[in-house]
Write a structure and sequence with these properties.
Blueprint (H helix, E strand, L loop, with lengths): L1 H98 L3 H26 L6
Length: about 130
């Protein structure tokens, strides 16, 4: 039994010595494989990042152009609104001037309207006749 144990130990020692000899080469090979895979992945990622960077640049340019266009539209709307407000204000002032007649002026306007209506009515009656047929 002692002989067998010694053989196993010697065998294990030989294996350990072999592993010790090959371990640095094995680790170097693993590093090379892993680093080459990482290098390939990094190259692909760089290409993606560059294309995404271009896309982001285009997106930023489009957003800035849209913002400028919206500002121009806002300025145009403000101008149109101020123009409409001015026109409405003029009409309101004109209506206020018309409405702010004194009672005597208002009576004169009302009387003129009534007399013009009566004259028109008499003229229409004489033209059409009593039968209603012209």
């Amino acid at each position: 039994m002692t002989y067998q144990i010694c053989n196993l130990t010697r065998c294990a020692d030989v294996r350990v010595v072999r592993v010790e000899a090959y371990l640095p080469k094995f680790l170097e090979w693993i590093r090379y494989k892993v680093l080459s895979l990482l290098g390939d992945s990094l190259t692909r990622c760089e290409a993606s990042i560059e294309s995404l960077g271009v896309r982001l640049d285009n997106l930023i340019a489009r957003l800035e152009a849209r913002k400028n266009a919206e500002e121009e539209d806002d300025d145009r709307v403000d101008y149109n609104l101020s123009k409409e407000t001015y026109v409405v204000e003029l009409r309101r002032e004109k209506v206020e001037q018309t409405v702010s007649l004194t009672p005597i002026e208002f009576y004169g306007v009302e009387e003129t309207m009534v007399s013009a209506t009566l004259e028109r009515s008499l003229k229409d009656t004489s033209t059409i006749g009593t039968s209603g047929v012209s």
